Amino acid sequence: MLTPESLKRIDREIAKYPADQKQSAVMAALAIAQEEQGWLSSEAIECVAGYLGMAPIAAYEVATFYNMYDLQPVGKYKLSVCTNLPCMLTGGVDAGEYLKQKLGIGFNETTPDGLITLKESECMGACGDAPVMIVNNRRMCSWMNPEQIDKLLAELK
Amino acid sequence: MAILGAINPMLSVGLDGDNAWRLADYVKRDGYSALRRILESGIGQGDVINEVKKSVLRGRGGAGFPTGLKWSFMPRSFPGDKYVVCNSDEGEPGTFKDRDILRYNPHAVIEGMAIAAFAMGAARGYNYIHGEVWEIYERFEEALDEARAAGFLGRNILGSGFDFDLFAHHGYGAYICGEETALLESIEGKKGQPRFKPPFPASFGLYGKPTTINNTETFASVPYIINMGGERYLESGKPNNGGTKLFSVSGHVNRPGNYEVPLGTPFATLLEMAGGMRGGRQLKGCIPGGSSAPVVPGPTMMDCTMDYDSISKAGSMLGSGAVIVMDETTCMVKALERLSYFYYEESCGQCTPCREGTSWLYKVVHRIEHGKGRADDLDLLGSVTTNIMGRTICALGDAASMPVQSFIKHFRDEFAYHIENRKCLVPVDVQRAGSGFFTATA
Fold it and tell me: Mind listing the pLDDT tens digit for each residue in A78-123?
């Protein structure tokens, strides 16, 4: 059920590990599957497990352990805001509140038009740039004051 | 500019410009000359390890363990697969130095790992990179391609007969994978749950083979040590605390960011480099080594120097060099509540004292913060911490407990006020003003 393009990317990940250790590529493979499909359905996880020759339950364990995998559908854009202490001191919590107000949703909710899912996140390792948020697990946005947040929201349409 | 300020820097020299991270620029900065000298002049494995021992380089990830000694634990002359692994899973709240090293000086990490692999007889390595910093992961992949194309990685490096393959592995959101054996489990494609030790990774590591894991900054320091010699490196810090160190300064300062200074630099100097306290306010407390380190009250902190020994004397840990600065607008109960939530959220769930205990810690601090504290809650928190500490496989349980103990020890009156009066000692609007969020654009 994954596209040939995704499988090719997974093959490149498998090549990083010893021939008998294909399972090592599971984190990357799940990330690739999620990138392609927007979230990880049970079918997608099973497909990855099958491709890597591991038990579906072992892949499911990985998918549920790491919190950047989404096991439920999310909006077109997933916005994760760090509210951990160093970020909180310089506006991370306020940024979260500001986003909730602007979008009219709480954490772990999606706007009615399906555009944006808001998540509270743990330390992203970028505390000097606080407030910090990540779009779709890929793009880190730094120094997000109200003006920057407004700009980002206008861009995500 | 990569690093906002420095005194006698090594790691952050010459990193201006958009291409500073590229191989060509690194080579211009004398990059890969240490690896070349080792491979071409027949310096032995033992000599390399001795040089690192002489430098008194101590692990930059948090534990401060002497790197040379760690390397000497590897059975380097035994045949069979061996691995070197770099821990770039930087998720300790307050720490963001490895991100900048990988962003601006990734080849120093690659060269350091290649030297380490040579010294320990390893032919393969992995760099485990925090999943949240995706651009950094992609850049590192690109740097690896450059190093392979130039013959600094792969088969028969520089015609020496030494083989070393290095790959990048990304995390995907689990703080616990910064624990070295959890990190190994994660590379093996499993949940990141720490292993019981012993056996230590030097005898049973990745795929059950001898493995050494070091932090990003530790590996990045190695080429500089080889080039300048271990003794000179040691002298650039202070006795028992060799070299310079990157400090990530966050919180209530005017210029949060990374600063490279010699170990032993006064905290007051570092604070000044970071632009001083915001709005000229007073330093209330400081967590000097990442969220797991005990908090130090402001006046004590002002007397510290930034090195393993001085911070340890002040009752805390230098840890990863993450300096979280809190001024008088900080509610210490709320600060602890957020940290406790973090450990509760990130406990891997393997050991009962940590899984259940971190939940208790969070719930009790949460109820104090929200005006529902009970008279004996501070004693209860103390008892929960002593029932976690020392009773778990890894250090996460201790890391969750130390903030609780130290916050209550140093700011007990504030916690007691909260319980008695059911509100913050620091008014909420003062706290909000302290964050600067709504004034940033005004």
Answer: 999 999 999 999 999 999 999 999 999 999 999 999 999 999 999 9
Identify the CA nearest to B226 among candidates B430, B2, B10, B14: B10
In angstroms, what is the C-alpha Rg of chain A?
Answer: 17
Q: What separation in angstroms does the CA of A110 have from each of A74, A148, A149?
A: 7, 21, 17
- Give the Cα separation of B47 and B32 in Å (integer): 18
Find the radius of gyration of the CA atoms of chain B. 22
* Contact in structure between B186 and B144 (CB atoms under 8 Å): no
B23 residue type, one letter: L
Q: CA angle, corner B180, sides to B174 and B186, nearest 5?
A: 50
CB contacts of A107 in chain B (<8 Å) are none
DSSP string, chain A: ---HHHHHHHHHHHTTS-TT-GGGGHHHHHHHHHHHHSS--HHHHHHHHHHHT--HHHHHHHHHHSTTS-SS---SEEEEEE-SHHHHHTTHHHHHHHHHHHHT--TTEE-TTS-EEEEEE---S-GGG-S-EEETTTEEE-S--HHHHHHHHHH--
Tokens standing for residue B395: 């250090």
Residue A60 CA to chain centroid, in angstroms? 16
The answer to whether residue A21 neighbours chain B at the CB level (below 8 Å) is yes
CA distance A115 to chain B (A): 21
Distance CA B373, CA B423 (A): 10
Model's pTM, two decimal places? 0.96
Nearest to B323 by CA among B386, B227, B218, B247: B247
Q: Please write the tens of the pLDDT for every residue from B358-416.
A: 999 999 999 999 999 999 999 999 999 999 999 999 999 999 999 999 999 999 999 99
Residues 70-129 of A with CB under 8 A from B: 83-86, 88-91, 93-95, 98, 121-129
Cα A88 to Cα B93: distance, rounded to the nearest angstrom: 11
ipTM of this complex prediction, to 2 decimal places? 0.97
CA distance B4 to B364: 39
Q: Is A28 on the interface with B (CB under 8 A)?
A: yes
**What is the DSSP code (8-state) at residue B282?**
P
Task: State how far the alpha carbon of B59 is from the alpha carbons of A137, B94, B268, in Å.
Answer: 30, 17, 24
User: Which residue type is seen at B147?
Assistant: A
Give φ, ψ of B277 to 5 degrees: -70, 145
Core vs surface per residue A66-95: b (16+ CB within 10 A) or e = bbbbbeeebbebbbbbbbbbbbbbbbbbbb
A/B interface, count of CB pairs below 8 Å: 188
Total residues belonging to chain A: 157
Q: Which residue of B has its CA nearest to A132?
A: B132
Give residues with Cβ within 8 angstroms of B237, minimum separation 6.
B56, B243, B244, B245, B262, B263, B264, B307
B93 vs A85: CB contact, 8 Å cut-off? Answer: yes
Residue in chain B nearest A90 by alpha carbon: B435
